[in-house]
């Protein structure tokens, strides 16, 4: 049983370590998301600046190029956002799965602890019963030995009386 507990403890520690790694990965993803948002903000500022420059110069070619670059960067940002969203969803589902698994293992451990307590109670009861039976048998053995001794004494007296008669 201790091996089972040790195995379950090791499993829980392993899952706890995985849980921490996932949390670290989430934190890293969150940091990356903040960086992407900063990058996006910088791009928006740059785009606004370029837009105002384009308005000042009013050169159609520059506007077309800038709009093309803006569309490309927007597509890249959308791809990055989608990727981050998928990663976050994946991590959330993994976290939920691990929470469920940990709950199940905890419940199983609790059930095993209850089983062990029940077995210990039964073992204690059996031990007390065995002690009582042993005491009774010891008393019966002492009584048997006394009767045996009395029998030998009476037999000896009978033999002595026969000899006398």
UniProtKB/TrEMBL annotation:
TM region(s), chain numbering: none
Primary location group: cytoplasm
GO cellular component: centriole; cytoplasm; deuterosome
UniProt keywords, alphabetically: Coiled coil, Cytoplasm
Cellular compartments annotated: Cytoplasm
GO-annotated biological processes: centriole replication; de novo centriole assembly involved in multi-ciliated epithelial cell differentiation
Highest taxon listed in the record's lineage: Eukaryota
Coiled coil (residue ranges): 70-115
This protein's name: DEUP1 protein
Organism: Jacana jacana (Wattled jacana)
Gene: Deup1
């Amino acid at each position: 049983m201790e091996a089972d507990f040790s195995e379950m403890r090791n499993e829980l520690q392993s899952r706890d370590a995985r849980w921490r790694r996932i949390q670290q990965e989430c934190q890293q993803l969150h940091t990356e998301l903040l960086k992407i948002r900063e990058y996006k903000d910088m791009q928006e500022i740059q785009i606004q600046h370029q837009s105002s420059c384009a308005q000042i110069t009013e050169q159609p070619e520059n506007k077309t190029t800038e709009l093309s670059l803006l569309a490309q960067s927007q597509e890249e940002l959308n791809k990055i956002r989608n990727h981050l969203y998928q990663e976050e969803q994946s991590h959330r589902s993994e976290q939920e799965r691990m929470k469920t698994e940990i709950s199940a293992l905890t419940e199983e451990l609790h059930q095993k602890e209850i089983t062990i307590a029940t077995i210990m109670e039964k073992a204690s009861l059996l031990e007390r019963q065995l002690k009582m039976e042993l005491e009774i048998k010891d008393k019966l053995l002492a009584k048997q030995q006394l009767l045996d001794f009395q029998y030998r004494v009476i037999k000896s007296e009978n033999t002595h009386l026969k000899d006398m008669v």
